[in-house]
């Protein structure tokens, strides 16, 4: 398995280069989903706003990933005449990340605060990948100017089942020690999120995405979850979610793995274009 190979290589070198760390982060996003700087008291955050026009398209990456996950499609999104926002956690901070204990509400609050300072009530479209879907779902509760969502093989409140929590904890907890040795700074951001999955699931149980909100839910052909029973439960949750409102559309990304924006970017670009047109047509 590639995950094991990466960690074996990491143990053999005394220092992880920034390139390897970014590669490892991108890889973890597959398996875990799990130009100004703005920071809040919760967690360090660096936002980059590009382009001109409305709406503002906010690209939310998954756990263990970073803004580079969107490099392949961000220029094409911006060419639609919109502004784009990508962000990174500042993982090389001298202070321990989330030392008070990770909570998905705090991560969402950090982004909400930054966007509130940035957006000035402009219409926002959220594009969320993997674990970022849970963060996006919380943003909808707080930001009245969110006018559409594109989920990119992302988590939604309804798919955060006890079975998914059990799978994530069983699959990744045994790898914590290896990750801490291979990429200690990255481990500070990834491990707390995984440990908090039970609490995150509980919080997601109280989240409701309004039925009037336009949503395109892209589901990859190959899931990041390797348990067939859990995959079936997740797909039913997504099917039920889109069936619950005529404003929600399900898109099956044939031939794609978890990173749809890299494997089959056309699905993501077309979905964003469709939501942008809807928002502009209001």
TrEMBL record:
Q: Which InterPro entries match?
A: AB_hydrolase_1 (IPR000073), AB_hydrolase_fold (IPR029058), AB_hydrolase_sf (IPR050266)
Q: Which GO terms describe its cellular component?
A: membrane
Record Pfam families: Abhydrolase_6
Q: Which domain of life is it from?
A: Bacteria
Q: Which Gene3D superfamilies match?
A: alpha/beta hydrolase
AB hydrolase-1 domain segment(s) = 57-271
| One Gene Ontology term from the biological process aspect of the record | acylglycerol catabolic process
Q: Which GO molecular function entries does the Swiss-Prot or TrEMBL record give?
A: monoacylglycerol lipase activity
The record's section on PANTHER family has: MONOACYLGLYCEROL LIPASE, MONOACYLGLYCEROL LIPASE ABHD6
Protein name in UniProt = Pimeloyl-ACP methyl ester carboxylesterase
Question: Origin organism of this chain?
Answer: Pseudovibrio denitrificans
